[in-house]
Design goal:
- The protein is of the alpha+beta class.
- It is 30% helix and 31% strand.
- It has helices at residues 3-6, 78-88, 145-157, 171-176, 202-217, 226-244, 246-263, 268-280, 299-303, 310-322; strands spanning 7-16, 19-29, 34-36, 43-47, 53-57, 64-70, 92-100, 103-113, 117-126, 133-141, 159-160, 182-189, 192-199, 328-333, 338-343, 351-354, 359-364, 386-388.
- The radius of gyration is 22 Å and the shape is globular.
- The chain starts with a helix and ends in a 5-residue tail after the last strand.
């Protein structure tokens, strides 16, 4: 099998005169064990026969993405690899090193001239294969780069270099918001006080991701791929929040799951899930005051008492349940202007069948004081709900 055939594109594509036209959701490479979740609509312009280099463009946004895999490089580092790449293009750059996903990585803003003047950002990170590096460059014409910068940042932020650390803050966010030290957070769930720690930078960083991804989502409002863009929006927020909530998820489980086991020995999962559902149903309701802002409260901000809406609560539920391997998804509906959590627990009530795995997920309504499996009759049309899954291969 060739390198090119091993390079896996997880999207629907058409082969036209040896050029791929594709609706991109995720790119993954089994050899070098990395993935890249890029905004919808990118197309492959060209690639090398060895499968180590690809150039993508977007038909609606003047952005180019270059992916280059370097292999068999001894005694070097990410900054050196990135510097060498940009030097070959005679690019003007300012390279910085930082720690992300347990690796030392590099980032640079740059400008260069090829057929015209371009500006953009580049990152480089080691893969899990010794001596190999993933190099990404994303850029736009200089006179359009400012308008495209959030799209560029979102594209690069979709990189994952280790499947074991998929649901962690992205490379761009981690660079922009380094740790500022821990702060204590206290909440009460089912009459149990839960004390956990989050980083002082977590809420600001999480809000940055939300607004970054919302700026990208707005570009797809009238696009044929609006549904896929909406799913990516929530997935990118989830990826960032999951890792930031790790301590809270663990402390919540330790405090509440033993109570669920005592109360319901035959099905403690549904009792634990009900504790969490009843808790988020008490949250203060709040919508965005500015139509240009994302109508979404960070799950980090939600546990700290900031007002929130149905999708924030539903994502928080999904994170807490997925963190203990109870498969949970987010269901969103443009028709109903609503969102719910749904979880794969065997219990009575209304369920949603997920086509990709044929499993049944019981609905969790977060804005009314009801139990799992209860939904309003006027929101029961399953075809009007869009699933957002958070499972990884």
């Amino acid at each position: 099998m060739t390198r090119l055939s091993k390079f896996r594109f997880l999207f629907v594509f058409l082969l036209l005169s040896s050029i791929f036209s594709l609706n991109a959701e995720s790119i993954s490479d089994k050899d070098f064990k990395f993935s890249l979740d890029i905004p919808e609509g990118f197309q492959i312009d060209s690639y090398t026969e060895d499968g180590m280099s690809y150039i993508f463009s977007h038909p609606n946004i003047p952005v180019t993405l270059v992916l280059r895999i370097y292999n068999n490089l001894d005694k070097t580092d990410s900054a050196s690899v990135l510097k060498n790449t940009l030097s070959k293009l005679s690019a003007k750059s300012d390279i910085d090193s930082f720690y992300w996903s347990k690796k030392t990585c590099a980032i640079s803003s740059f400008s260069m001239t090829i057929d015209q003047n371009y500006k953009g950002w580049a990152i480089c990170a080691p893969s899990l294969i010794e001596g190999s590096y993933i190099n990404l460059m994303c850029y736009a014409p200089s006179d359009k780069e400012a308008a495209c910068e959030q799209f560029i940042m979102s594209t690069l932020n979709g990189l994952c270099i280790n499947p074991d650390y998929y649901n962690v803050p992205g490379i761009i966010t981690s660079y922009a918001f380094p740790s500022q030290g821990k702060t204590q957070n206290k909440v009460t769930i089912n009459n149990k006080t839960i004390i956990s720690q989050i980083d002082k930078a977590d809420i600001e960083a999480s809000n940055f991701v939300i607004e970054l991804e919302y700026s990208v989502l707005k570009l797809y409002a009238k696009h044929a791929l609006w549904k896929e863009a909406w799913q990516r929006y929530y997935k990118m927020i989830y990826r960032d929040a999951f890792g930031r909530l790790e301590d809270f998820s663990e402390k919540t489980f330790e405090a509440l799951y033993p109570l669920a086991e005592k109360e319901n020995p035959s099905n403690p999962d549904i009792t634990y899930a009900q504790y969490l559902l009843s808790w988020v149903q008490t949250f203060n309701y709040q919508r965005a005051g500015n139509k240009n802002d994302s109508d979404f409260t960070s799950p980090l901000a939600a546990i700290c008492g900031q007002g929130n809406d149905c999708d924030s609560r539903s994502m928080l539920l999904s994170i807490l349940l997925n963190s203990i391997d109870i498969e949970s998804i987010l269901l969103i509906s443009r028709d109903y202007s609503h969102a719910m959590a749904a979880t794969n627990i065997k219990a009575p009530g209304q369920t949603y069948k997920l086509e990709e795995n044929q499993k049944e997920y019981i609905f969790g309504e977060t804005t009314a004081k009801v139990t799992w499996g209860m939904i309003a009759q006027d929101q029961s049309d399953r075809s009007k709900w869009i699933p957002v899954t958070f499972f990884q291969d």
